[in-house]
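Purpose: get a first structural picture of the assembly so the mutagenesis plan has something to point at.
Setup: two entries, given in the order below. No constraints added.
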Amino acid sequence: MELLRLTTAGSVDDGKSTLIGRLLYDSKSIFEDQMEALERSSDITGEGQVNLANLTDGLRAEREQGITIDVAYRYFATPRRKFIIADTPGHIQYTRNMVTGASNANLAIILIDARHGVIEQTRRHAYIASLLRIPHVVICINKMDLVNFSQERYDEIRQTFEAFSTHLQIKDITCIPISALKGDNVVIRSEQTPWYQGPTLLAYLEELHISNDRNLHDPRFPVQYVIRPQTDEHHDFRGYAGQISGGIFKTGDEIVILPSNTKSKIKEIYTYDGSLDEAFAPMSVTLQLEDDIDISRGDMFASPNNLPHVNQYIDVMVCWTDEQPMQVGKKYFIKHTTKNVPCLIKDLEFKVDIKTFNRETETTSLDLNEIGRVSLMTTIPLTYDAYSRNRFTGGLIIIDPLTNKTVGSGLICEPHKETPPIEKKYDDYII
Amino acid sequence: MKSLSLTHLQALESESIHIMREVAAEFDRPVLLFSGGKDSICMLRIAEKAFRPGAFPFPLLHIDTGHNFPELIAFRDTRAAELGAKLIVRTVDDAIEKGMAHEVPGTTSRNRLQTPTLLAALEEFKFNAAMGGARRDEEKARAKERVFSFRDAFGQWEPKNQRPELWNIYNAKIHPGENMRVFPISNWTELDVWGYIAQEKLNIPKIYYSHKRRVFRSDGQWLPVSNLLSPQSESEIKELDVRVRTIGDITCTGCIESSATTVKDIIAEIAAARVTERGSRADDKVSEAAMEDRKREGYF
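Result (structure tokens, whole complex):
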């Protein structure tokens, strides 16, 4: 059984929590005591139905204010797949939470209220899904019951979204007309939409092809931890433990250790369950090398004919997540793969006006939930790929050295010299 | 060509190994909470996979309420010895004696008293990262907690101010006196845990399997009769074939009627179950926000 990670985004009244409640309820993932607790919480909707939104809104303040505060994780499984849902709120702190939920997702569900169509918030969510390179996006056009299941209305919204999405970098977009409240086309095919020939949401989630979502082309292994038992039995054992962040490694493969640029060969791929001939992303393994080389946490193994970039100067699209704005000239820590490195913010090239997608170049600070392109200098070189090529070697977090808070997340851009000529109008705000 | 995909259990396991290694690399004084329960049994197998052939780079810690199922304690000691791991036990009784914890008159469950005992143990050994086997599917407040959950100098959790957590990068930076709670199996469900126990052929305490036990009905569940807790009249006691689904303090852990004698039986039973795991824990039934309140105080 495969694991599919998805994230949901929508504004307060789009019925996002209701949709998740519906998926859990109709796939029989809600238990009796949870139903009892829902009934006890006396949130019965006008039509005598239990409020499915209360299944996901867990913290007291959330129930009191009727909002979702933080990313909530939900789990359900069908005989075909196991699903992890990162449910992210749609209100003020949307960026911060949405990037958290989106970072590992194979798929994003974006909800649109059929009565309102594509609104500013839909564009923002789609933009973030594109920025974070979520491979698949499903547009659920919800509350179809409130527009009489009109095909015309559905087509109109779909066309508006598709026209807008040509400016984004989303590989795969699917639209589904649903009613989360009534259950149409969520798990059970609706009789109200005979004009819709596509799958129900659950059928789509079960059948989607996801094994190409990972990077299996560029071998990348950040050394996480060095295992040296120094016991009588294993006195020569020196293993480099870590999670493969790209590609495939085979026993006997020649590798380059970066940033030192030394070469060696893989002697053994050690695991607790025995040696392997090959291992691939995202497996956690322990590699032993032919040569005795000084290697430590933060170093990266790659293939000699497929190298990542090694540089101290990098350009990054940053989503700022702290109340204190980011300031040019200030020093922060960054954590990238398994490396913690001090850095200096050299320049804020522009920030993206998320309402209009225009660039603002006359700016020196990035506020909470703002996104901008930043030039950084690190004290030691980073070994990285562009985020668009590999999420795990192209993503980093920014940490405030005083408060230790995670104040930003960064998506590394291709180095300038390799950037292809810009043609399309929107390409420059997308990394 | 060989398949380059992982099963859901392989994917979850790899994520959990990565998290444990990250803790070992980033913190100088980590500890792993081990109770002998099914979740922490899986945690120990993950630790073996993360660090063998080396030794665990952390000791094990059990916060003993003193109200445990005796079978569990025996299992805990055996397993720690088999693995050659150092086991530290701190008891709620000690904490009460030292005045760090106080029993609330009229309550028998000591789950809440684990909090001061745990905080004192963390301070005593200067542990700055404590790994626990809590899962997000257990409860609504847990569903919103990060994998690396920052606790201030008082051990408190602030749900509104959690650090964003992206990809597989975890911010492990803390100031002296603060600590991190880390939940490597956050993304596992109850069924995943049992699937893993089956896959890895892990031993578990016998009380997870069907056995005859003297129980009595209290607030909709079967509670075990023990020297700490028994009904007002002997006539309420029944001897039934039961097993436990989750293990806490013996005074609040409900037993379920079951004939499951193998892991396979248990998986079949859970797959068909219509009540959540925590539905059999009286301590979570107090109010809808019971877990949230305990976590804010420093509970796991």
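Chain B has eight helices and ten strands.
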